[in-house]
Amino acid sequence: MENTAAAAPTTPEENPYGLYALWHNGGPIAQATLIILLIMSAVSWYIIFSKLWDQRRLRKGAKVVEKQFWSSGSLKEAVDRLPKDSDFRAVAEDGLRASAHHEGRLTDRIDLHEWVTMSLQRSVDAVNSKLSNGLAFLATVGSTAPFVGLFGTVVGILKRS
Question: Is residue 82 within 8 Å of 92, Cβ to Cβ?
Answer without folding.
Answer: yes
